[in-house]
Automatic annotation (TrEMBL):
Similarity comment: Belongs to the short-chain dehydrogenases/reductases (SDR) family.
Protein name listed in UniProt: Short-chain dehydrogenase
Listed SUPFAM superfamilies: NAD(P)-binding Rossmann-fold domains
Signal peptide: none
Coiled-coil stretches: none
Length: 285
């Protein structure tokens, strides 16, 4: 996909972070922009910024982890702009804590947004793109956490590995169909987003019990502090959108923006192929 003017982009998680940056880049390329997010207040502010860049914008307040709401997003998009040319499948959350400590609500929320939400978007929008028979592209946002593992974040790693695998498998199938839809999976390291504040966007059905022992624990507080530190000290977000659009133009599948992690990714594969056991010594250094 190389032509963007007057094409339609659908962006989930569009009110902040990667989604907002991509929405602004879409506007610079004179695309029609559909901005979807669960945070209505932030979505209103973000969409106003994009509208002021001189493009048509449709805003949809929605929860990506609810299939019917994803269907409604597609319905509103087609009613307004008639086509879907770019899907930036971005909405995501992060939780931390060991498998035996973290409450099930945290798992359900993380899986609901990061896995089911990603799948719902592809299930709804890819058939529309295939039917159009025009050049289209899907970018699924994963993380370097989908290519390597660390202690303390099993739910997040699980969902991001799932996103990478889901995207790879779908991409193979589209290739075998000689389809007009191309795919990319974006696997960044730490970037200055708003991800560490995702708790304020948790839907009611996934609400936590503040009296649960886990939320009083030192490990929970440490997880929050670590998330805030690594995100706020990550690379500036301003370079993200250009990297993503370059990948779209070049039909680049893996979008890796943090080369410092490549040796760790390579070590993980090397360890498997050599029949060795993974070692926590790497994280004690």
């Amino acid at each position: 996909m190389k032509e963007f003017k007057n094409r339609t982009a659908v962006i989930t998680g569009a009110a902040n972070g990667f989604g907002f940056e991509v929405a602004k880049e879409c506007a610079r390329r004179e695309m029609k922009v559909v901005m979807a997010d669960i945070d209505g207040e932030d979505l209103k502010k973000a969409s106003q910024t994009v509208k002021e860049m001189g493009v048509e914008v449709l805003t949809v307040e929605m929860d990506t982890s609810v299939y019917e709401e994803m269907e409604n997003l597609a319905k509103q998009t087609l009613e307004t702009f008639r086509t879907v040319d770019l899907l930036f499948n971005n909405a995501g959350v992060v939780t931390s804590g060991s498998i035996w400590e973290m409450p099930l609500k945290d798992w359900e929320w993380t899986m609901g947004v990061n896995v089911w939400g990603m799948m719902y978007a592809m299930r709804v929008f890819v058939p529309i793109m295939l039917k159009q028979q025009t050049p289209c592209h899907v970018v699924n946002v994963a993380s370097v956490a989908g290519l390597l593992t660390t202690p303390g974040m099993p739910a997040y790693h699980t969902t991001k590995f799932a996103t990478v695998a889901m995207t790879e498998s779908a991409n193979y199938q589209l290739q075998m169909m000689n389809a007009n839809v191309k795919m990319s999976v974006y696997c960044p390291g730490f970037v200055q987003t708003d991800l560490h504040n995702c708790e304020k966007r948790r839907p009611e059905r996934f609400k936590i019990d503040p009296d649960h022992p886990y939320y009083q624990s030192e490990s929970y507080r440490a997880g929050l502090a670590k998330a805030e530190h690594v995100i706020t000290t990550g690379i500036p977000i301003t370079s993200v959108a250009q990297s993503i659009f370059t990948a779209i133009e070049e039909e680049q599948f893996y979008i890796l923006t943090h080369p410092q992690y490549n040796p760790v990714i390579g070590l993980r594969v090397k360890t498997m192929l050599e029949g060795k056991n993974p070692s926590a010594e790497l994280f004690r250094k």
